[in-house]
Amino acid sequence: MSTLPTPKPWILGIHAYVPGKSTASDGRSLVKLSANENPLGTSPAALQALEAARGEAATYPDPSAAALREKIAEVHGLDADRIVCGTGSDELLNLAAQGFAGQGDEVLFSRHSFSVYDIAARRCGASPVEAPDRAFTADVDALMSAVTDRTRVVFLANPNNPTGTWIEPEQVRRLHAGLPKEVLLVIDEAYAEYLDPAMQRTGFELSAAHENVLVTRTFSKIYGLAAERIGWATGAPGLIDTLNRIRGPFNVTASGQKAGLAALGDQDFVERSRAHNAAERSRLESAVAALGNHGLSSVPSEANFLLVEFNGDLSAEAALTAIAETGYAVRHLPEPGLRHALRITIGKSEDMDRVIAVLRQLCGEAA
């Protein structure tokens, strides 16, 4: 019998999350195009709110984040009582699995989707199940075919990380309609604000109309508040009650709550960020397409990054090294099926200029 504390076997199956790098192998600091952060930074209004909140460090924050929930509800046309806030959307994704799955159960998600889903499943003792994807995109039929009587939670990232792909509203609705009512569908919309606003309502509509849909969002991406770790979810009262029972009691800091409030009030910043992303992502897509005769291509993206494939003489590893030597960190995800690809966050215009120039040089094209 062991004389030391022994972790549960399903915990030992977890491979800890690996964040995007910001330094080179020789210790040099790099411009980080590896973590999908907002290159425009943070709304000035949110920065002012953060500064103003510094004097409140000695007191606990509002445990229910009531003012923040009310503002979220106002901006998105939701019911504040059907919203819960978390330490980033990561906390809420983990709580969704913990609240509705356990030993003997299955948590289902598409191949090449967010690595936290696998962690969330294993953390609560459930079995992670990957459904085949189609062209790096969630395959609704494959997901529905993978559902068993042990399935308790289905995760769908839309847009998806790390591929950037997106399935249209009718496909999301078809997936939900094909799931048993006792299965929780979690729609992870961390990148939803980069979509055309007209395409952002599907998850909200499903979560308002059904008891088994939870939608998660974050302030880490388009709002530029990654350091504050603020996320939120909306769903039926029973779902929100479950997450409130098991979340941290003071899980969103006072400064984070105030920064989130201010960020929500600065929708001009959100629109500028969306427009910048669309323009620079299109420019990077065009540059990669122009190098198609060298084996480069990109996966159609609706997020704030582009997955670039290297299927010619230039390898992803060689490109990763060369880009780092130029001063930039991009993301290599050497999992099965993605070893040949790099995920490049959309940065400032000058960042995209430099990355494009490096790719052209590596392919032997004039800069």
From TrEMBL:
CDD domains, per the entry: AAT_like (cd00609)
GO MF terms held by the record:
histidinol-phosphate transaminase activity
What's the protein here called?
Histidinol-phosphate aminotransferase
Subunit (UniProt): Homodimer.
**Biochemical pathway:** Amino-acid biosynthesis; L-histidine biosynthesis; L-histidine from 5-phospho-alpha-D-ribose 1-diphosphate: step 7/9
Record InterPro entries? Aminotransferase_I/II_large (IPR004839), HisP_aminotrans (IPR005861), HistidinolP_aminotransfase (IPR050106), PyrdxlP-dep_Trfase (IPR015424), PyrdxlP-dep_Trfase_major (IPR015421), PyrdxlP-dep_Trfase_small (IPR015422)
Q: Which reaction does it catalyse?
A: L-histidinol phosphate + 2-oxoglutarate = 3-(imidazol-4-yl)-2-oxopropyl phosphate + L-glutamate
Q: Which organism is it from?
A: Erythrobacter rubeus
Keywords from the UniProt entry: Amino-acid biosynthesis, Aminotransferase, Histidine biosynthesis, Pyridoxal phosphate, Transferase
Name the needed cofactors: pyridoxal 5'-phosphate
Q: Which family does it belong to?
A: Belongs to the class-II pyridoxal-phosphate-dependent aminotransferase family. Histidinol-phosphate aminotransferase subfamily.
For the keyword tRNA-binding, the answer is no
Give the E.C. number(s): 2.6.1.9
Aminotransferase class I/classII large domain residues are 30-358
Q: Does the keyword Membrane apply?
A: no
**What NCBIfam families does the record point to?**
hisC
